[in-house]
Design goal:
Layout: H1 2-21, E1 24-38, E2 41-48, E3 57-60, E4 64-71, E5 79-82, E6 108-114, E7 120-126, E8 136-142, E9 156-165, H2 170-180, E10 189-192, E11 209-212, E12 217-224, E13 230-235, E14 240-245, E15 248-255, E16 258-260, E17 265-271, E18 278-286, E19 299-305, H3 331-338, H4 349-352, E20 358-369, E21 387-392, E22 395-397, H5 405-410, E23 443-445, E24 448-451, E25 456-463, E26 472-476, E27 481-488, E28 507-508, E29 510-513, E30 517-524, E31 529-535, H6 538-543, E32 546-551
Parallel strand pairs: 1-4, 3-8, 9-12, 11-19, 20-25, 22-23, 24-32
Antiparallel strand pairs: 1-2, 4-6, 5-7, 7-8, 9-10, 12-17, 13-16, 13-18, 14-15, 14-17, 18-19, 20-21, 25-30, 26-29, 26-31, 27-28, 27-30, 31-32
Bound molecules: CU-O-CU linkage (C2O).
Amino acid sequence: MVSYYVQGLVLLLATLFSLVSAKVQYHHFVVQAVPVKRLCKTVNAITVNGQFPGPTLEVFEGDTLVINVVNRAKYNVTIHWHGIRQMRTGWADGPEFVTQCPIRPGGSYTYRFTINGQEGTLWWHAHSSWLRATVYGALVIRPREGIPYPFNKPSRETPIILGEWWNRDPVQVIRQAARTGAAPNVSDAYTINGQPGDLYNCSQQDTTVVPIDVGETHLLRVINAALNQELFFSVANHPFTVIGADASYLKPFTTNVLMLGPGQTTDVLISGNQAPGRYYIAAKPYQSAQGVAFDNTTTTAILEYESLVCPPRGVPKPTPIFPPLPVFNNTATVTAFTNKLRSPRRVPELPVLLEVEENLFFTVGLGLNQCPPNFSQNQCQGPNGTRFTASMNNVSFVLPSNWSLLQAHKFGIPGVFSVDFPAQPPVQFDYTGNVSRALWQPQSGTRLYKLKYGSRVQIVIQGTSIVTGENHPMHLHGYDFYILAQGFGNFDSNKDTNKFNLVDPPMRNTVGVPVNGWVVIRFVADNPGVWLMHCHLDVHITWGLAMAFLVEDGVGELETLQAPPIDLPIC
Ligand code: C2O
C-alpha cells in the first residue's frame, strides 16, 4: 500500500516538473506518393514529406509532440508512434479501426501526446494495410536537459533503419494475397536508411555511407522497420556494446551480431578504433519458419572513416570488409543474444515480485481455412487448396470497419466488439508437437479482453507448430512490459516458473516468441484505453494474429482516458 502512495507522489512530482520544463514540438506530415528509384526501377512510393525514409523526430524526454498529418495519398492512412506509452492519450496511438478511423484521402488529423519516462530509440509508421512498407521514420528520445546518458556520451549518433522494399505497390501485394488466400509475394530487397546497398542491381551509387572518425564513440540507433522479416545485423570489425532496446536502457554487454524483429529497436555503441578504412554494415534474414519462401538477400551500408585517404581520381575506393553473419535459420545465435538482455538495475517490485491478478495464457500461430463453398479455386491458393489464417487462442482477429474499437468503447456503441477473448486456449493440446488437423482452423471474431485499471498482468505467450512453428515478434500497444523468461517447447507452469528472472528482467514493447517456444511477460494495466497486441510481421496481422485489451478507467482524472480530440476522424 505504502509503495502505491510513494509511486503516486513520485508520479505527481514528475508531472509537475514536466509541466514546468515541458517543450512542445509542432510537426507537419504530408503523406503522399512520390517517384522513388530503387533496383533499376522507378515506382510511386507513398512517403511523408517526400522523404524516404520519412523525417526523424528528435525529442527530449518530457516533450509534447503535436503532429498534423495530411493525407494526400490515394489510400486511407493512420500513423502509429511505435512504443510511445500514450498515457491517457490512446486517441493518438494510431492503429486503424483500433484507436481511430482512418484519415481518408484529402483528410487530416492531429496527433498530440507527451513522452514520459522513455529514453532511447522508437519509431513511427503507418498502421493501415501495408503502407508502413514505405511510411516510416525514426523517433529519437534524448534525456531531458541536464540529465546525462547513463553511458559515456557518444560523439556522434546515427539512426539505422532497416526496411523492406517491393518493386510493386505493397498495398497491391497484400490485396492480391487476400484475394488468393496464398502467402504474399516476398520483397525484392532489404534496405538500410532507404537504400538496398552494393549487393543489389543499380544500387551501388546510392549505398548509405555512415561516417566515423578515429577515436570516436558512435551511437547507432538500429530500428527494424521491415514488414515481414526478422533480421540479423552486424558491422565488420566493430563489435557492439548494447545499451538499450525499445527506449529502455539495458545492462551493457558486447556482441558481434544483433537480431531484431520488426518493431524492435536496439541502441549500440561502436568505437572508431580500427584502421581508417571502409567496413560493411549488413543485415540479412533470420527465418525460423520451415518450408516458406522468403527474400534471402543481404542489405549493406558502409561505415567509412573520415580520415580515409582517398585514392586518386578514377581509382575506386577500397572494397569494404564484410562482417560474418549467421545463416538464416541460426536460432542458437538468437537465443544467446536475447538471453543477454537485462535491465540495468533491479526492477521496482511492481509488477514483478507481487502476485499477478491476471494470469493469461495466449497461443499464437498460423492456421489454414478450408476453402469456403462459395469460393473459387483461385481464391484458395494456400497449401492444398486452403487459405492462410492466423490466430491467438484460436481467435482470428477481425478489425471493425464502421467504428474504431476505442470510439465504440467510449461512446458505448453496441455490436462492434465483445469482451470475451479467452484467458486460456479453448482446447489444450501439445502446442509444439504434431497438432491434429482438426485444430488448424480458428474462429474469427472481434473479441477483446477486459482489464481492471491497475491490475497486474502476466501473459505466457505460447507459439504453436500449426502449419509451421515460427518466431513471432509480439508487440503490445500502449505499454512496455518486463520479459521474465523464454524457452522452447510447451510452457510448463510447474518447472518453468523457476526460470523467471525476478531481479533484472529487460523491458520492451516487442518480444520475439521463440520458434516452437514460449515467453512470459508482465505489466501493470495503468493506461486506460483499447490496446492492440499483435505479431509485428504484417503478413500475420493481416491473417488475424492479433487481439486487443480494453483497459478500464481508474479513479479520478489522472486514471481516466482523455476526451477524444475534436478532429478525430469518423468512419
Ligand atoms: Cu509498430 Cu501495431 O505496431
